[in-house]
Specification:
heterotrimer; B: five-stranded mixed β-sheet; four-stranded antiparallel β-sheet; 11 strands; C: mainly beta; seven-stranded mixed β-sheet; five-stranded mixed β-sheet; 2 helices; 14 strands; 43% strand
Chain lengths: 192, 176, 199
């Protein structure tokens, strides 16, 4: 083989290596939790727990019924309250991280002003009902999906976090649902 | 001779790379060891962490105010006899109890608001003094302690009781 | 020189040529840096600065003896330094205030405020409640409060440096990092110099 051909093949191989390198998914994609999708009313089963959304309410203010007096909370956006139930599969676990992912990919964290279902201890086979409260900009309500990931086991002998499962629920949020939102949405804060 | 040196260098380099890559996974390995179990024969005793253990009873209990619907309450009474001073000290650090059904589902011990505790039985595997401080039990003397559980009404029998001492890698499994 | 030795020199020459030629191409194009760095902006109260994660508009710096973030109605008397800001989250993820707080470094006159030991509390303020996070696109009123030691006299001026944060893949030589992206501390994006109000 002459020298020119060798050089050409070498360059082609180099380009192929570069191309293959670009096809390798980055760590964010590799370690992204594997999500199981569902809709409102459907039981979604993942390894640590089973989760079901019973309904979604929207409101400009949130009334929180507590054992020692009620509290009303405003927001710069709109309150989206997801009413849901969950049960652990084999051992005590908490849902972990809950976000509302808007159609453009922004992730709204569950409100830290409300003690919600996301932090409650779930026991195997025992359903717990509760709410997840989010504050989201009105312009981003349409098409927002609920994503729950990073289930936390209470046992130190389980690894938490990366590579775990996730639940992704289409909440059926539309512009019409937003327009029809009541002034106030009420939830009962869970017992600790 | 030079080839031998090359081979040695190559072997060292490969070992080094493998070691560096394996180090982060050692933690995972030690976590996985947490699944080890010492099993007692049904109704019998087992020695674990220098103490002798037995399951005295596992009976239905009075549900508390906060017991969820569709569940039943259970209380286990466990007897533990430390066989040495060190074993007694290990008990004083506390232990966690759970029940496990034949399909592998596990329920950790519940609070007093979910299950009403029994009178006259210690709340932990160590004796508790007037100031609610754990005291190491005396060598050779059995401590009877209780752990309560809330399980689904349909949880299948036989349920086995699991005890894990604070900081221990192995768990102990007891059955009636 | 032996034919074998000439081969080695040819290799060295090739490698050197590759290194030199890449430098020769990169240098006229602005060196090996991504962009020309600008120094941190000097801002005063009411001026806003936007980074990769948040836009900050400092509103007020005050010294007060009244509890600026009381847990109960009574509050706790003390020597407090208070920084009030309007903060808008410009990133697609929620910002936790405890993380945002660590981007700030404060000097009260010549005293360096200890970010851990001197911290009183930080909060997102609303009329009806306090919180600890800012969701994407949301503009919130944020208050940081510190307790000044008795040995430090009442400050007249503060200098606050604010760091930007950047979303980058994590990395570690020994493989302890998975490589997933995280928020990392970036450059100082602004320095605030402000007079301290009393009250």
């Amino acid at each position: 083989m002459n020298r020119a051909a060798t050089v050409a093949i070498g360059l082609a191989l180099l380009a192929a290596i570069g191309g293959a390198q670009r096809l390798v998914p980055d760590a964010d994609l590799t370690y992204r939790p594997i999500a199981t999708s569902g809709v409102v009313g459907e039981e979604v089963r993942v390894l640590p727990y089973t989760f079901r959304v019973d309904g979604v309410d929207l409101g400009r203010t949130l009334r929180l019924e507590k054992s020692f007096g009620d509290q009303t909370m405003t927001t710069g956006g709109v309150w989206v309250v997801v009413r849901a139930g969950a049960a652990a599969t084999t051992e005590q676990v908490t849902l972990g991280t809950a976000v509302l992912r808007s159609a453009d990919g922004a992730e709204f964290a569950v409100s830290d002003r409300v003690l919600g279902l996301e932090g409650e201890s779930l026991q195997a086979g025992i359903w717990r009902k509760g709410a997840l409260a989010f504050e989201i900009l009105p312009g981003q309500v349409e098409g927002a999906r609920l994503v729950i990931s990073k289930a936390r086991y209470s046992s130190i002998h389980r690894l938490n976090g990366a590579l775990g499962p996730a639940v992704e629920i289409d909440l059926g949020l539309t512009r019409e649902r937003l327009a029809a939102a009541g002034p106030t949405v009420t939830i009962k804060e869970s017992a600790p | 001779m030079r080839n031998v040196r090359y081979a040695l260098g190559l072997a060292l380099a490969v070992t080094g790379v493998v070691t560096i890559q394996a180090l982060p996974h050692l933690e995972r390995y030690s976590l996985a060891r947490g699944d080890a179990v010492v099993e007692a024969p049904p109704g019998g005793t087992a020695e674990h962490a220098g103490s002798r253990w037995r399951l005295i009873s596992l009976e239905p209990a009075q549900p508390g105010e906060l017991a969820p619907a569709g569940t039943r309450a259970l209380t286990a009474v466990i007897g533990v006899t430390p066989l040495s001073r060190e074993a007694g000290k290990a008990l004083a650090k506390g232990c966690a109890a759970a029940v496990r059904d034949p399909s592998g589902r596990v329920w950790t011990s519940a609070t007093g608001s979910s299950v009403t505790p029994l009178d006259g039985v210690e709340p932990t595997c160590a004796r508790v003094d007037k100031n609610y401080k754990a005291v190491a039990p005396k060598t050779g003397k059995e401590v009877r302690w209780q752990a309560s559980f809330v399980v689904p009404a349909a949880a299948a029998d036989p349920l086995r009781v699991e005890v894990r001492l604070e900081g221990a890698l192995e768990a102990l499994r007891l059955a009636r | 020189m032996s034919p074998h030795g000439r081969g080695v020199w040819r290799w060295y020459g090739g490698i050197a040529a590759v290194v030199v030629s890449s430098l020769l191409i990169a240098w006229p194009l602005g060196g090996l840096e991504d962009a020309v760095k600008e120094g941190p902006r000097q801002i005063s109260l009411g001026q806003s600065v936007t980074g990769h994660r948040v836009a900050i508009k400092p509103g007020r710096v005050a010294f007060t003896t009244k509890d600026p973030l009381p847990w109960s109605d009574a509050g706790q008397k003390g020597r407090y330094l208070v920084l009030d800001m309007d903060v808008t989250n410009v990133s697609p993820q929620a910002v936790n205030l405890t993380e945002l707080y660590l981007d700030f470094d404060v000097h009260a006159d010549r005293y360096h405020v200890d970010p851990i030991a001197d911290l009183y509390r930080q909060a997102v303020l609303r009329d009806d409640s306090q919180g600890g996070q800012i969701n994407p696109g949301m503009a919130e009123k944020v208050r940081f409060a510190w307790v000044l030691p008795a040995s430090v006299s009442e400050p007249r001026q503060v200098t606050v440096t604010m760091r930007d944060e950047t979303w980058e893949p994590s990395w570690s030589l020994l493989g302890y990092s998975s490589g997933v992206s995280l928020w990392f501390k970036g450059e100082v994006m602004a320095t605030l110099k402000a007079r301290v109000e009393r009250g």
